[in-house]
Amino acid sequence: MEKLKPHTSYPSRPSQIISLEKGKLPPQATDLEEVVLGAMMIDKKGVDEVIDILNAEVFYKEAHQHIFEAIHTLFENSEPVDLLTVSAQLKKDAKLDAAGGEFYLVQLTQKVSSSAHIEFHARIILQKYIQRSLIKISNEIIEDSYDETTDVFDLLDNAEAKLYEITQGNIKRSSETAQSLVIQAKKRIEEIANREGLSGIPSGFTKVDKLTSGWQPSDLIIIAARPGMGKTALTLSMARNIAVEHNIPVAFFSLEMSSVQLITRLISSETGLSSEKLRTGNLAKHEWEQLNVKVKGLEKAPLFIDDTPSLSIFDLRAKARRLSSQHGIQLIIVDYLQLMTAGGSQKGGNREQEISTISRNLKALAKELNVPVIALSQLSRAVETRGGSKRPLLSDLRESGAIEQDADIVSFIYRPEYYKIDEWDDEDRTPTAGQAEFIVSKHRNGGLDEIRLKFIGHLGRFENLETFDFPTEIHSRMNDAANDDTFKTDSFPSADEAFGSSMNNDLSPDDDNDVPF
């Protein structure tokens, strides 16, 4: 009887922990790996096309990993890449035998005659690697999930971080030709013309939109202020204008207030009923009717609120991508940046480094989804100790200069009334009551300005500040118009528009003495 040979077990490499479960082979394309490596050794053009797409670990065969490492080393040192130089580099690294020897290198070069379609082949190799990585991560997640000593939220953070690393490390955009970019730009210009000059998402504030042309896709916008200035009120007013008036989907991530509190503030703003009345429910019959009628537009608005506390940048990215694919969101608002965490493997380091990571990833998210991201931020207490008008400065941004660096627009909210300042520091010394300033201090693609807005405190709402709030201004405009040869009657508002229908309808530019003060 034939004796059975004892079974010999071979240790598997740590990097390949993929089991052949149910007889399945890991995703691979070894034939394409051979073709790509052979093409790189016979044609310099092949090296140039795929050297930034691939890296050693994406190859399934260990021998191919060593060969690619040798090619990459030669490329980095600006040395020629061919059969002889690759062989010499492998000898130098003491990996020629592990790579299959010189005969195997010759075989690779004979499998292909040119580098045609090498980029297409390289991307298939990359896809197979991503599939193997997902299988590997899934196995690790399953194994970790059986460990009762591991915190479930740490599991979620680790899983999110691993998936994020695969995306960041391997999904790379290729360059585009000037021709294709020009076509895209012309199409965008046509769309802008159809939207009356706004190329981005309208904020609902006329002067802000004029300055920015709307919030632009892929921009990171920072809105910073001290506590109590109305950061949340301003962004809620914007979200309401965008979602209700323009029916544009908006995602609002609130780390500070609950979703019910936010929607209650929106209801107060929409109905004109104070937050105190809504909290107590002490409404008269006509106010109940007012509530039911005026919230109908808000109910139908494509506004999505997420109030997850201590949201990590990885969670935000996953949620935003989901909302983008399912609901087509075109604007993301984060309230506020300092309450976020880096999450995953980014927990080390000080708070400044963590904030830098968060702001950098918010910018990356804006570019990835091609939507504007508005992030609220706190200011340092230096504003409170400073004398004068107490207008915020870029240096007041809290915890990190990286916020200023990463942002396309940095803006501040300033309400002098908060500091018991009764008059603006302008020539007219106009009163500050019920007014705020939206200060654009950095604008990567446009100008800077200080824009005044109306603030309705008991409703938590910002609005456009009427141009003709003061009779002296109208008086000045009338005189200018009367002295102008090209004077037209529509260059200033009628008395009805400026003061109400009860005023004299026969008011003319010459009747200066009839203007009430």
Automatic annotation (TrEMBL):
UniProt catalytic activity: ATP + H2O = ADP + phosphate + H(+)
SF4 helicase domain residues: 194-469
GO terms under cellular component: cytosol; primosome complex
Pfam family, one: DnaB_C
Function: The main replicative DNA helicase, it participates in initiation and elongation during chromosome replication. Travels ahead of the DNA replisome, separating dsDNA into templates for DNA synthesis. A processive ATP-dependent 5'-3' DNA helicase it has DNA-dependent ATPase activity.
PANTHER family linked: REPLICATIVE DNA HELICASE, REPLICATIVE DNA HELICASE DNAB
Name this polypeptide is given: Replicative DNA helicase
Organism the protein comes from: Pukyongia salina
